[in-house]
Amino acid sequence: MTDFFIQWGEAAYTTAGFFWMALWAFALGYIISSMIQIFVTEKKMQKTMGGKETKGVLLGTFFGFISSSCSFAALASTKSLFKKGASFVSSIAFLLASTNLVIELGIIISIFLGWQFVVGEYVGGVLLILLSWILIRLINPKKLIAQARKNLGDKEDDEDSGSKSWKQKMKSEESWAKVSKQYGMEWKMVWKDVTVGFTIAGIVAAFVPDAWFQTLFIGSGNGNTDFSFLEILEHIIVGPVAAFITFIGSMGNIPLAALLFGKGVSFAGVMAFIFSDLVVFPILRINAKYYGWKMSLFILFLLFTALVGASLILHYGFDLLSMLPDPSQVTVQDSEYFKINYTFFLNLAFLAVSGYLIYLGFFKRKDLMHMKEMAPKSKTLESTLKYAAFLCYLWLAGGLIVKFFV
């Protein structure tokens, strides 16, 4: 029982340390994301994505890059863009870019995994788009696309984009109040996923033995970095399965991805784990609600196939360039999470900025309404995640008490 309490304390402390390491990065990423979403409206995107296919894909990728990393917001925006004239392939490009090429995700990955994974994330995001584009051109699912548009129907509420230019908006207190409300919405969208994901990472770090990872990911562990093709392929397939089990988005999964890599999982397997936030059941169900089950299953096949291909290309491409990261360099279990360093001062600075934004949007201009369309989440899943997050807070509080006071 003594060992259990020691591990409980270590698990809670590790999770708290993960939160502290990533706090400023979350704040910075979501502030930038909120500013872009207020100053660059969806209606302006729609006007430019319905032309030539190549131009549409490039613009879809760019608009996705400057969008939110939340999968549910990305799904709603993708649906709206597709319905209002964007081609299917440019809509998929937007969806993939908005969940893989966004700024905040790169910052979090750099903290927990290092520069190679940041490069892998952005290059892999582009590969996902290119491979999906090629598959769509080869399969040419015209009937599915036509049926998907028909399933969306005709009724759609237009976004009130206003007539102000982005320069005028930048000078307006009302626009900055909307930025603050969007910032609050960004946190509201991810707090449950991040809480559960970071807590799971702490528990895995403290309780799960290396032998378990070696069983799940064939050939991993014992310092092995020379994997066969079949072992890498197995890692790539098991990675999305592990992501499906955790049921949380990529922002919450990054510490767990770092743990997987530290335990000896291949670079390809970890990248597949990170890429897999769009091939889980909640996303499949939402796409089915929008476009019908046939198109939803086609999107699942499309994204999973692209994920496998991108992960393989990244692994062997990095290996060819001698850029594969060393697992021993990823040390997320650091006993000095809270020392006075750049993280400490950045956290204080962004807590102050966040405090001002909360004051501006939720107190000074609380009369201002700002809503953003979200994909229809499962009430059961959301309730489960909410109660799981509350249980996580109890677990963390108990573990920290045990570590420092017992």
Secondary-structure blueprint:
Elements lengths: L1 H38 L2 H7 L4 H13 L5 H13 L4 H13 L2 H10 L2 H25 L2 H11 L13 H5 L2 H35 L2 H7 L12 H18 L3 H13 L4 H9 L5 H11 L1 H28 L21 H23 L14 H27 L1
In short, what is this structure?
The chain is an all-alpha fold. 75% of the residues lie in helices and 0% in strands.
Any key phrases for this structure?
406 residues; mainly alpha
Summarize the helix and strand pattern as letters: HHHHHHHHHHHHHHHHHH
Number of helices: 18
Largest sheet: none
What is the total tally of β strands? 0
How far apart the termini lie comes to 13 Å
Spatial extent as radius of gyration: 21 Å
**Percent range of helical residues:** over 70%
Low-confidence stretches are 155-161
Which class do the helix and strand fractions yield? Answer: mainly alpha
Describe the structure in your own words.
By secondary structure, the protein is mainly alpha-helical. Helix content is 75%, strand content 0%. Helix 15 (281-291) packs across helix 16. It is globular and about 65 Å long. It starts with a helix and ends with a helix. Mean pLDDT is 83; it is low at 155-161.
